[in-house]
Amino acid sequence: xxxxxxxxxxxxxxxxxxxxxxxxxxxxxxxxxxxxxxxxxxxxxxxxxxxxxxxxxxxxxxxxxxxxxxxxxxxxxxxxxxxxxxxxxxxxxxxxxxxxxxxxxxxxxxxxxxxxxxxxxxxxxxxxxxxxxxxxxxxxxxxxxxxxxxxxxxxxxxxxxxxxxxxxxxxxxxxxxxxxxxxxxxxxxxxxxxxxxxxxxxxxxxxxxxxxxxxxxxxxxxxxxxxxxxxxxxxxxxxxxxxxxxxxxxxxxxxxxxxxxxxxxxxxxxxxxxxxxxxxxxxxxxxxxxxxxxxxxxxxxxxxxxxxxxxxxxxxxxxxxxxxxxxxxxxxx
Length: 333
Prior knowledge:
The protein is mostly helical. It has helices at 9-21, 34-45, 50-60, 64-74, 84-90, 95-110, 123-146, 152-163, 168-181, 186-195, 204-217, 226-238, 251-263, 277-290, 293-303, 309-312, 321-331; strands spanning 26-27, 306-307. The chain has a two-stranded parallel sheet.
C-alpha cells in the first residue's frame, strides 16, 4: 500500500489546499544551470548546433566536475545519438565529440533495459544493451587517451563497466582514475557508491562505510555528505522501502544523517553549484522518513521549487514530484 493511502481524507484535503497555494515545484534536468539548459536545447536541434555545445564544454574543460556535470546532463537527451557520430567523424582529433558520443551511448544503452535493476531483460534487449556499451567503451577510452587530464571519460567508464559486469578490480581502478584527477568528485563518488550496493554485488554495510569515509575525508562543505543519506535510503529500500518502517528513525541512522548534513549541506562553506539541489533533496527525503520534520523543513526551505527525480521516485516512480510536494506541505504545516 502506498504511503499516500495512509493519509486521512482530511489530511489529504488539507495538503491539496496547501499545495495549490504554494508555488509549483518543477523537476528541472538542468538543475537551474543556464549552460546545461542551452546545450540540452541545442542537442535537440541537431549537428548544426554543435559549435554552441562545443563552446560550453570547452569552457568547462578546466574544471573536472564542471565538464562531467555538463556531459551527464547532455547524455540523456534523446536523439543525440542520431547525429553525434557525424561530428566524431568530422573532428577526429577532438576528444570532446568522442566524450559526448561515448556518454550518450552509455545513456542509450541503459534505455534498452527495464527501468528497475533486476527486472526481466529479454535476450534482444541484452544484445542491444551490450552493443551500445561496447561502442561507449571504445569511444570513452579514446577520449581518455586523448585528454588524459579529464575525469569525465572515467566517470562514464564506471557506469559502462557496471553494465558490462567488468568486475570489482576494473570498477575500483576506474573510480581511482576519477579520484586521481578530481579527488572529491561528487559524480564519481556517487557511481562508486552505486557499485557497492547489494544489487550490484556489494553490501549495505560496505556502501555505508564507503560513504562515511568519503565524507570524513572531504573538506567541510563538500557535497559528498549526500553519499551517507543515499546509503541510508538504500538500506531502507533493501528492507522493503516501507515509508512506515522504523529503519530511518534508528538512532545510529539519525546520527549518521546529522553528522553528514553538518559537514555538507548545513555547513557554512557549502556552495550551491552544478547539481546542488540533489544533495538537498536526498537529505530532505531521508529526514522525512526518519520523522525529523524540523530538519526536513530546513532542506525544503533551501530548495524552494527545485525538486529532483531522485530520490523521490522511490516513493512514486511515475510521478516523483507528487511526494516532494506533499511532504513539503506536510512538514510545513
